Amino acid sequence: MDLSVAIGGKKLPNPVGVASGTFGYGGEYEQLVDFAAIGALYTKAVTLLPRPGNDIPRIVETPSGLINSIGLANVGVDRFVSEKMPHCRELPCAVVVNIAGSSADEYARVLEKLETCPGIWGYEINVSCPNVKHGGMAFGTDPAQVERLTADLRKRTKNPIVVKLTPNVTDIRTIAKAAQEGGADAVSCINTLVGMVIDVGAKKPVLPMGTGGLSGPAILPVGVAATYAVSRAVSIPVIGLGGISGSLDALQYLLAGASAVQIGTANFVDPTTAARVLAGIREFCEREKLSCIKDLHRFIP
Amino acid sequence: MKQFIAKILSHAPVSDCFFELAFAWDAAAGPVLPGQFCTIRVSPYSAPLLRRPFAFSRYDEKAGVAAIAYKKRGPATELLSCKPSGETIDVIGPLGNDFFRFATAGYTHVYLVAGGTGFGPIAFLANHCAQRNLACTVILGCRTRSQLPRLNIVPSVKAVVCTDDGTEGIHGTPLTYLAALSPPQYTSSAVFSCGPAPLLAGCHEWALARGLSCFVSMEQVMACGVGACMGCAVRVTDAGANGFARACTEGPVFDSRRILWT
């Protein structure tokens, strides 16, 4: 059976990727994971200048979930290109570079620098990070800004552009449509939900920023519902993510209308999750005599 | 570093609040050094979700055995404490750097200071030092006599016990003991410490005031354990690191002068 996924004129070898921020730049997991089983590595977000990230503590566990407030800590695009890409481009999987910025100009400048760097399959545009004061989610909650930003980046590359959507909006479909209008080749759905944990003894939030982004099994049904809604609102492929820990979770996303999925927080729990999920999807499709991922879309109208 | 399923060989309390869990070590994961840690998945379900980091308390390469020491302090360690010998655990390790890499600077004697669960890696380090003919003194602090763990260190190593309530050994903390030392006793020495943050900070100040080096094992909430998530950041003084370093891969052992103590 054919498990490849077509996005923007290119193909991912299989539908199971590892989500941005959970797999670093790949090298961190090299001794633990067979990258040949991974469809795509979505890198840690890259910004124009290096960012130190937010104050500590940055993570707190919640019931079946995890709230993070990393704050886009990264080495910056120049060091990404010189230090990380030489290794990334040797990986047998597609490398999708996640781009973040505080302004439209910053996104554009990061993308232009990456365009000169061989080995990049495509870009995931992070307009949905809840943990930074400027940019991030501020872009992703405004359809007009999402469309303008996507259109501007579209002009600068022929590589696939995937816009990563935030669920922290009234209607995620309007943002997805805006991304499509701007020329996105796909949307990833969803980034983390805004959450807060309060230390009752200290009578203050555990995270210095107050809130962070909730991920993990707790958000699985939210992501599936968003994927169901978005995949019916746009014609471009939807990449589903949020709370996937096993192949049954991933199959929910694919049945809801996703063309591919990403594994996020589950990588921390079991780095081999992506390989396990891929094997489970393959087994299911063979058992159900489905010939490709698209065949999964006909069951739920 | 490797992820593997390990059989629990022994699992027992070593005091009224600490446990030691020994498990079969997969040789393919490589050797273990004092200060390094592993992560263990304590539940196959979604809660508790994250793997938990545990420092090694001993390692026997020939026997193929590694052990961790821990304190029950939440749902994850509560669950772990229920696992009997013969059962298996999902382990990733060894992770992080080690203490001994810092012990090569010509010290004739080192102070190994442990507080609470820090006794595990410090006992491991003490035996490691003894095998390599580096003289050391272990200073172990805990709240009260009943919490004192069996230390499992070779008899040649001097061990000093301190209890907060004075029920055993010196009445006070390891810092009380250090403060009472006079100069000839710590010439050409260094401090290695593992335990609660105030103890680490105190060791740092004690060493700094005497022109000695101090190396501390930093603890932080951790998600991936391999340097990918940037979650376990600790504050450091060097601008090159943008003010933060990852406890999991750049540590957990740091030169105490690199840590931004607050």
Quickly describe the structure:
Chain A has 301 residues and is an alpha/beta fold. Chain A has helices at residues 77-88, 104-115, 137-140, 143-154, 172-181, 220-233, 247-256, 266-269, 273-287; strands at 5-7, 10-12, 16-18, 40-42, 59-62, 65-68, 94-99, 122-126, 161-165, 186-189, 193-196, 198-199, 204-205, 211-215, 238-241, 260-263. Chain A is globular, with a radius of gyration of 18 Å.
CATH class of chain A: Alpha Beta
The CATH architecture name of the largest domain in chain B reads 3-Layer(aba) Sandwich
Give the beta-strand count of chain B: 15
- Overall shape of chain B: it is globular
Largest interface, C-beta within 8 A:
A-B, 37 and 32 residues
User: CATH superfamily of the largest domain in chain B, called what?
Assistant: Nucleotide-binding domain of ferredoxin-NADP reductase (FNR) module
Task: Determine the fraction of residues in helical runs of chain B and give it as a percent range.
Answer: 10-25%
The CATH topology of the largest domain in chain B, please? Rossmann fold
- What gyration radius of chain B follows from the Cα positions, in whole Å? 18 Å
Distance between the termini of chain A: 23 Å
Tell me the series of helices and strands of chain B, N- to C-terminal.
EEEEEHEEHEEEHEHEEEE
Count of alpha/pi helices of chain B: 4
Task: List the SSEs and their pairings.
The complex is a heterodimer of chains A (301) and B (262).
Chain A: E1 5-7, E2 10-12, E3 16-18, E4 40-42, E5 59-62, E6 65-68, H1 77-88, E7 94-99, H2 104-115, E8 122-126, H3 137-140, H4 143-154, E9 161-165, H5 172-181, E10 186-189, E11 193-196, E12 198-199, E13 204-205, E14 211-215, H6 220-233, E15 238-241, H7 247-256, E16 260-263, H8 266-269, H9 273-287
Parallel strand pairs in A: 3-4, 3-16, 4-7, 7-8, 8-9, 9-10, 10-15, 15-16
Antiparallel strand pairs in A: 1-2, 5-6, 6-14, 11-14, 12-13
Chain B: E1 2-13, E2 18-24, E3 37-41, E4 52-60, E5 65-71, H1 75-81, E6 88-95, E7 109-115, H2 119-131, E8 135-142, E9 158-163, E10 170-171, H3 174-179, E11 189-194, H4 197-209, E12 213-217, E13 233-235, E14 244-246, E15 253-255
Parallel strand pairs in B: 7-8, 7-11, 8-9, 9-10, 11-12
Antiparallel strand pairs in B: 1-2, 1-6, 2-5, 3-4, 3-6, 4-5, 12-15, 13-14
